[in-house]
Amino acid sequence: MQIPPNETEPASGWMTQHTAQLEQMFAADGSLARKLTGYRPRAAQLTMAQAVAATIESGTHNDSTLLVEAGTGTGKTFAYLIPALLWGGKVILSTGTKHLQDQLFARDIPLVRDALSAPVSVAILKGRANYICHYYLHRTAQSGSLPTPQDAVHLREIIRFSKITHSGDKAEIAQVPESAPIWESVTSTRENCLGQECSHYKECFVMRARREAQQADIVVVNHHLFFADIMLREGGVAELLPSANTIIFDEAHQLPAIATLFFGEVTSTNQFLELARDMTAEGLQSARDAADWVDLGAMLKQAARDVRLAFEPSNIKLPLAQLAPDHPLHEALATLTAQLDTLIVTLAAQAERAEPLAACLRRACELHAALKNFQTIAPAQTDKVCWVEVFAYTVQLHITPLSIAPIFEKQRAGAPRAWIFTSATLSVKGDFKHYAAQMGLAADRSMSLPSPFDYAQQALLYVPQSLPQPASPNFIDALWQAILPVLEAAGGRAFVLCTTLRAVNQIAQRLRTVSQTRAWNFPLLVQGEASRGELLERFQQSGNAILVGSQSFWEGVDVRGGALSLVIIDKLPFAPPDDPVLAARLALLEQQGLSPFSDYQLPQAVIALKQGAGRLIRAETDRGVLMICDARLVDKPYGRRIWQSLPAFKRTRDLSEVQAFFDEAEHM
Predict the structure, then answer these.
(1) Which of 172, 246, 548, 657 is buried most deeply by CB count within 10 Å?
(2) How far is CA 490 from CA 202, 546, 567, in A?
């Protein structure tokens, strides 16, 4: 049963035996109010909680699915946590990011558990790269050679931390940034983990986290781990699934892209470089007399680097079918395969001497098979696309499914359970068909709940007049002329969200120039010049900064108060047409007699735009302007469908109204 966006009471089919209990918990004097300062009841929050509870009840007998789009400020986290903690049984809660995963585990779940006096146990489970590996920590410490003095400082901190930590989670050691290069040397991967043959297996942090997850009532994971693990059957989430009664995906709009990544196959030249590094170290330690390990490693490294040298310096994506038969990639892959053949022969002769060498042999064989698969997969296959992604220093070889729906349906098969998918952006004007089709779900049990914010009073949607089409060579100049007076009127306090990194650099350069000529005192923060977390912290602290970013800042960013009063979006976020997977999907839709634009590109753009627009109003006291610099929003027939999917902003095309809005806000 689909509930219209403006309906605030659940339809009769959604009523749950726990309705009265939920009403008490979410009441003005209920359990949450007694624990949360400033808590106020929200009808949409209660409605969502009732729907989640009803889905959990249904899931005890049959597979039951719920799609919930809950606008910003609805309080969806508590709306799914309370039913999950009380009636969900064994619950797997999957989030979009590790940051949100940590927030749920450390703050939100303990608060709700305390408010309800619910005797449930909770565990957090992350990918193995987040945990210190005793074996590789010891090996790195014994090697005595590190690239930089900073690495040595970080290593000492990690050694000290490893002796006192229970979890081994690198997020808990503030002295060493999560992006520090040293982590690659002191954590394990699926490929190089020694498993039960490891001498540190009993105290392994990864295995401890998995044991705790097996015993817990609520297990918090993230989407990347969820899909990687169930595909690889590595032993974390894959072992949890059979016993789980309820699966909840928060930030569920990210699932199609993440599932596509993990339901496909990716082979990176970095994997060969890592194998060469580990094989050299293990060979010298366990079988120094058997081969020239340094030379073998150097030859494999060079062959992997030659794959990158087969392309021009620029970053590109292209389908394998577009490469000519004499393209240098083919020869480079053949050479890399031959080097692997040589390495496999050597490792096979020495593998019995030490388990780490046997592990290197298994990795080499897996990479050999992956290379062969990429080079020989049948071109006639219509359900997959083979493509290449070239970065500054590495190349990735992809085999990607064009639809994840049948694969995900297969993964969902098994014992009856409840499946709940929630996000602030899942629908197009309340229609969930696009999202449901991507995931292989039924859209009949879905609901779109409005935000409690008064967008008509709190915000303004501004589309400048006289802008050329985004494809015009004059677009960036016109965009600059349009945003300059708005930035001045807002006094900085802005996100400039671009659809490409090229646009980020162009806008940032112009802002640097104008800051000098006009003596602006607005701090300029640009994606790539510092970590995302550091940029956001500096943005909030300054109070009048301008942050220019691309995809990293379109979602998962929560800046409340006056520090963010203007969000500028350069153009509608249609995916680039040169993306190999998108091109193959659109071609398949056309073959099926569907409209590639209406049935795929437009819904995707709407959901992405809603995420970017959602950065503006984060609290009931926030005020601000959303500026979308794309005339197609007004000029094209499909534009109406797009802006009607956004919250109910007051709309204008008049710059003076924008300036008056900021003037009024300044005097409030």
Answers:
(1) 548
(2) 58, 10, 10
Q: Where are the alpha helices (DSSP H) in 205-263?
A: 205-215, 223-232, 237-240, 255-263
Residue written as token pair 């009664």:
245
Residues 6+ apart with CB under 8 A from 648: 455, 456
The sheet carrying 316-319 orders its strands as 265-268, 395-401, 384-390, 316-319
* E strand or H helix that includes residue 295: helix 293-309
Tokens standing for residue 268? 């990176």
DSSP characters for 638-656? THHHHHTTS---EEE--HH
Name, in order, each residue with C-beta under 8 angstroms of 406's C-beta and a sequence gap of 6 or more.
440
Element (H, E) at 58: helix 43-59
| Residue closest to 557 by CA, chosen among 545, 570, 567 | 567
Instruction: Using DSSP bridges, classify how beta strands 418-423 and 459-462 pair: parallel, antiparallel or unpaired.
Output: unpaired
Report the C-alpha gap between 614 and 178 in whole angstroms.
27
- For residue 267, the cross-strand partners are 397
Could you give the angle at the alpha carbon of 200 between the alpha carbons of 197 and 202, nearest 5°?
90
For 472: left if phi > 0, alpha if psi spans -120 to 50, otherwise beta; the answer is beta
Mean pLDDT, rounded, for 27-52: 91
Q: What is the mean pLDDT of residues 370-397?
A: 87
- Residue 228's contacts (CB-CB under 8 Å, 6 or more residues apart) are 127, 234, 262
- Residue 592, token pair as written in the block: 């099926």
Find out whether 56 and 418 touch, Cβ atoms under 8 Å.
yes
CB 98 within 8 A of CB 63: no
β 395-401/265-268 pair status: antiparallel
Q: How much of the chain is in helix, strand and coil states, percent to nearest 5? A: 50, 15, 35
For 406, the token pair is 């049948």
Whole-number pLDDT of residue 179: 81
Q: What single-letter DSSP state applies at residue 105?
A: I
Mean pLDDT of the chain: 91
Q: What string of DSSP letters covers 589-629?
A: HHHTT--HIIIIIHHHHHHHHHHHHTTS--STT--EEEEE-
Contacts of residue 494, defined as CB under 8 A and 6 or more positions apart, other chains included, come to 487, 546, 547, 564, 565, 566, 567, 568
The total of other beta-carbon atoms located within 10 Å of residue 462's CB is 24
Nearest to 70 by CA among 433, 435, 446: 446
Alpha helices in 377-494 (DSSP H): 405-412, 433-439, 455-458, 475-490
pTM: predicted TM-score of the whole model, two decimal places = 0.89
| Bridge partners for 546 per DSSP | 494, 524
Question: What does the alpha-carbon distance between residue 257 and residue 452 come to, in Å, rounded to a whole number?
Answer: 29
pLDDT of residue 98: 85
Instruction: Report long-range pairs for 304-313 (Cβ below 8 Å, ≥24 apart).
Output: 304/269, 304/272, 304/273, 304/276, 304/336, 305/269, 305/273, 306/332, 306/335, 306/336, 307/269, 307/332, 307/333, 307/336, 307/395, 308/269, 308/390, 308/393, 308/394, 308/395, 310/395, 311/390, 311/395, 313/392
- As a whole number of angstroms, the distance between CA 117 and CA 356 comes to 48
SS3 26: coil
Cα gap 12→266, rounded to integer Å: 47
d(CA 291, CA 345): 11
- pLDDT at residue 96 is higher than 70: yes
Sign of CA dihedral 561, 564, 567, 573: negative
